[in-house]
Design goal:
298 residues; 13 helices; TIM Barrel; 2 domains
Length: 298
Amino acid sequence: MKRSEVSQCASALGRAGARARWGDKLARAEGATPPRAAQRPALALPERASGLPMMVYVGQTRQKSLIAKLTAVGFGETVVRGEYPPRRHPWFYDNGAFRDFTAGRGFDQTRFEFELLRMTSSTAHPPPDFVILPDVVADAAQTFALSIYWYDRIRTVIDNPNRAPLSLALALQDGMTERDVAKLLPMVSTLFVGGTRAWKWSTAARWAAFAHAHGKRLHIGRAGTPRLAKMAREANADSIDSAFPLWSRKHLDVFIAAIESGRVSREAEALEAETLRRYGLEAVDAASASDVKKAGAW
C-alpha cells in the first residue's frame, strides 16, 4: 500500500496523520493490497469449530503437519504482538503486555499500533476475532486507564472507516468488579480473564456468568494444561488459549481429548505433571511456539 492510498482512507479525526507516519513501513510490510472487502458484522459470541464445546486458540507454529492438524480440529491461532500476520484462521491478537511483564520491560506501544494499522490496511487476512486492549498485569486501575485511552485511539485513529471496526477485548485484572467493568462493556465484544493465577481461576465462573448476561463472550487466557482447560469448560468459558498442544503430538492429542470429554485422563495427568516438572510454570504461561522454545522443550 502506497502512502497516498493510506492517506486517502484516513478520517478527519487524525487517522490520516497516523497512516502517513507509518505509510512507508506499511507499504514494505504489505505490498499492494486487493480491493477492500465488504464490511462484516462485529463478532458477538464465538462460533465453536468442529463441534468442540469451547473454542481453543493456540500459538503460531511453522510445522505444516501441525498446522494441518490444528486447522482440521478447528483450533484458532493466538497471534502475540510481534508475530503478525497470522498463519491460520480464526485468530485473535494478544497485545504482548504479559510477555513484556514477564521479561521485565515496558509495553511496546509503537509496535502495537503499527501492527494494528497493518491489520486495518490489508485485506490479505480476515480480521481478528478480538484484539486485547493494552493492560497491566494484576493492576485494575492502570488497566482501566490504558483500555479507555487505547479504545479512543483505535476508534479515532486506527480503525478503517471502510470496514467494520476492530472487535476489542477488555483484560480483567485483580481487583476489578462487575460494577466497574459494566461501565466499559459498550467498548468491547469480549471479556478476557487475565490477572494472577489464583485470582483468575477463583473468579472465572463469575465473570463468565456476568459476560453472558450482557451478551459478551468470555475468554480465559493461558489455560495452559488439560486440567486448566477442563476448569475453563466447567466455568462456562467461550474460549481459551494455550500452547500446551504445541509441545508434541501427544500433548495435542490429550488436550483435544480433555476439551471434547470434559475429563482429564490418567495419561493427560501424567503428561501434564511431567511437563510441569521439566519446564516449570513456563508450560502454563507459554502463549506461542517461541515461548515453548525458550522453555527448552524443542
